[in-house]
Amino acid sequence: MPGNPLRSLRSRMVREVTDRLTGGGSPAVRAADLGEPWLPPDSPVREVHGDIAMLVGGLRALLLQSLHPVAMQAVSDHSGYRSDPWGRFRRTAAFIGATTYGSVDRAGEQIALVRRIHDRVTGQMPDGTPYRADDPELLMWIHVAEADSFLAANQAFARNPLPASRIDRYLADFARTAEALGVIDPPRTHDQLNRRVAGFRPLLRGSEPSQDAARLLLWDPPISGPARAGYRVLAAGAVATLPAWARSELGLPTVVIMDRVLLRPTARALMVTLDRAFEAEGFGRSAADVRS
Question: Which residue of 126, 133, 188, 285 is most buried, as measured by CB atoms within 10 A?
Answer without folding.
Answer: 133
